[in-house]
Design brief:
Length: 141
């Protein structure tokens, strides 16, 4: 479970929020001039980035305000939270495509950067949780 820091209400459980899709998608300048293919691309085609990704979120059970979040899609680390209309912060370089992930504590929220995998099917049952940052055997890029 993520702990999301609402810019208005403070840290709350992710169940109070609704995901709003990719952030910074510009509305077409001349929408009446778009053909069906261009409308479909605007409405449905979004990036599927591995690493840092800008997202829109709504604090639906709290202040009901929208905000943007820069989150790593591999580790779930929240790198920045910033208001709607603000440019994407260039806080972090894109994550490498090598299959490794950072397990450093997140500095913008409380908690840990990545969920624990102890007790799951990918961690050996008879060993202590590993501190390795490499992807499990068989994982794809």
């Amino acid at each position: 479970m993520l702990l999301i820091s609402c810019p208005n209400c403070g840290s709350r459980d992710e169940t109070e929020f609704h995901y709003g899709g990719q952030a910074h998608v510009a509305y077409p300048e001349n929408p009446n001039e778009l053909n069906d293919r261009e409308w479909a691309e605007f409405l449905f085609y979004r990036d599927n980035t591995k690493g840092a990704f800008a997202e829109r979120w709504l604090h639906s059970t709290g202040c009901r305000q929208w905000f943007n979040m820069l989150r790593d899609t591999v580790t779930y680390e929240i790198q920045a939270i910033y208001p709607m209309g603000a440019p994407r912060p260039d806080k972090a370089a894109p994550a490498p495509e090598s299959g490794t992930a950072s397990t450093a504590p997140d500095s913008t929220t409380t908690g840990t950067a990545a969920p624990s995998i102890s007790g799951t099917s990918i961690a050996p049952a008879d060993s202590a949780p590993s501190t390795s940052t490499t992807a499990p055997k068989g994982a794809t890029k």
